[in-house]
Amino acid sequence: MYSEENKYDVLVIKSYLKVNKLSKKEFCKCCGIEEKTLNKLYNNRTDILVSDLIKISNELKIPVASLFSCEFYSKVQTRFIL
Known about the structure:
Radius of gyration: 13 Å
CATH superfamily: lambda repressor-like DNA-binding domains
CATH architecture: Orthogonal Bundle
Distance between the termini: 17 Å
Oligomer: single chain
CATH topology: 434 Repressor (Amino-terminal Domain)
Structural class: mainly alpha
Number of strands: 0
């Protein structure tokens, strides 16, 4: 349905990795997720568990909604309101 769009805001994760001088592998260990899960997020795949998104957002200290791109989030939100 939303396949052409970026569903996730990976820049927030990339910025966190850069600021904290972490590799993807180290970040995944801190979050308690597998590296393949992070790669799915980077590749805009939708088969990511909500529990993994929560773990990532907890590590970043941001709301889960902040992991989604603004365009995708607003379309999904509008769809549920209608």
